[in-house]
Amino acid sequence: MKTMIKAFSAILVTVLLVSCATGPKFSEISPSLSDAMSDKGRIYIYRTAVLGAAVQPEVKLNGETIGKAIPKGCFYVDLDPGDYEITTSTEVDRHLSLILEKSQTRYVRLNISIGFFVGHVYPELVENEVGEKEIQQCNYTGQQ
Amino acid sequence: MRGSIMLNILCLLFLLGGCAFDVIHIEQFPAKLDSKISCNISFVLVKNVNIQFDGGYKRILKQGTKWNCIGRIVQGEVYKTKDQILTIEASNVFEAYIVVSSRKLVGFYLPVEHAFSALEHPIDLVIDESP
């Protein structure tokens, strides 16, 4: 019985590790990141939650895929000012609508909640001071 | 007896399904923001405003936040702030500005959807218009 528990634990840990984002820590690369061009804004998108690690839906911006919701992963997009809708799809679509202004920086955290068959990943707009802090522990995956 | 258990299980599955899928909506109505109408007004909230939504979640408009009028819709004046993020949510999340009429918070303007979502019970605002 103990052997089975150990084996199961090892498999679980392996799955979690494989599912998590690889890439440089955001805290390591952030000093070298250039600012968005002055006529654009920037949206950082990140996921801190490892829970539901196997659920990694694509992240879409106004219908176009820009990345994946990888646990402990992050990326950013520089965009013209305007209206944007960020969507994640699992068994349902979840979206966040937001305004981006010139030279503005916004942080979107991808949370996970209970679903019927699989967990739902949903985007949440967070305060910049929260996002700036939380994203430091994520790995930079880059946008697709 | 067995039928009753089955019925309960079906009800539970129905409820879980309802929670999991897209059944919670925010009632919103199309609203045209008229930003040409002069409303060079801003105010600072003197007290926190606690908002309890039907879906069970809460929002707080923080004391000390400054709100600037950006235009009007039929339901009132639309104010936005740079001091905090405001979203309203159901199955989805919407960035929102506040709509004020006669010093009462009457609802929210959704700038991406160009829509108004009303509060069931308007809330009195304690504000300082001097800044």
Describe the SSE topology.
The complex is a heterodimer of chains A (144) and B (131).
Chain A: H1 2-19, H2 26-29, E1 41-47, E2 58-61, E3 64-68, E4 73-79, E5 82-89, E6 93-100, E7 105-113, E8 120-126, H3 128-134, E9 139-140
Parallel strand pairs in A: 1-7, 4-9
Antiparallel strand pairs in A: 1-4, 2-3, 2-5, 5-6, 7-8
Chain B: H1 2-20, E1 29-30, E2 42-45, E3 49-52, E4 58-61, E5 66-73, E6 76-81, E7 87-89, E8 93-95, E9 97-101, E10 104-110, E11 115-124, E12 127-128
Antiparallel strand pairs in B: 1-11, 2-5, 2-12, 3-4, 5-6, 6-9, 7-8, 9-10, 10-11
Please, what is the oligomeric state? heterodimer
The Cα radius of gyration of chain B reads: 19 Å
- Count of individual domains of chain B: 1
Which strand order does the major sheet of chain A show? 8-7-1-4-9
The helix-strand sequence of chain A is: HHEEEEEEEEHE
Global geometry of chain B: elongated
Question: Biggest β-sheet of chain A, characterized?
Answer: 5 strands, mixed
How many structural domains are formed by the residues of chain A? 1
User: What is the count of helical runs of chain B?
Assistant: 1
The number of distinct β-strands of chain B equals 12
Strand order of the largest sheet of chain B: 1-11-10-9-6-5-2-12
Distance between the termini of chain A: 44 Å
Provide the gyration radius of chain A in Å.
16 Å
State the shape of chain A: globular
Compact description:
The complex is a heterodimer of chains A (144) and B (131). Chain A is α+β, with helices and mostly antiparallel strands and 144 residues long.
Primary descriptors:
heterodimer; A: 144 residues; alpha+beta; 9 strands; B: 131 residues; mainly beta; 8-stranded antiparallel beta sheet; 1 helix; elongated
Write structural notes for this entry.
The complex is a heterodimer of chains A (144) and B (131). With 144 residues, chain A is α+β, with helices and mostly antiparallel strands. Chain A has one domain. Helices cover 20% and strands 40% of the residues of chain A. Chain A is built from three helices and nine strands; from the N terminus they run ααββββββββαβ. Chain A has helices at residues 2-19, 26-29, 128-134, and strands spanning 41-47, 58-61, 64-68, 73-79, 82-89, 93-100, 105-113, 120-126, 139-140. In chain A, β2 (58-61) and β3 (64-68) form a beta hairpin. The longest helix of chain A has 18 residues, at 2-19. The termini of chain A are far apart. The model of chain A has no long low-confidence stretch (mean pLDDT 86). In chain B, β3 and β4 form a beta hairpin. Chain B is mostly beta strands and 131 residues long. Chain B has one helix at residues 2-20; strands at 29-30, 42-45, 49-52, 58-61, 66-73, 76-81, 87-89, 93-95, 97-101, 104-110, 115-124, 127-128. Chain B has one domain (29-128). Chain B starts with a helix and ends with a strand. Residues 14-19 of chain B have low confidence and may be disordered. The chains are: A alpha+beta (144), B mainly beta (131). Chains A and B meet through β5, β6 and β8 of A and α1 and β8 of B. β6 (93-100) of chain A pairs parallel with β8 (93-95) of chain B.
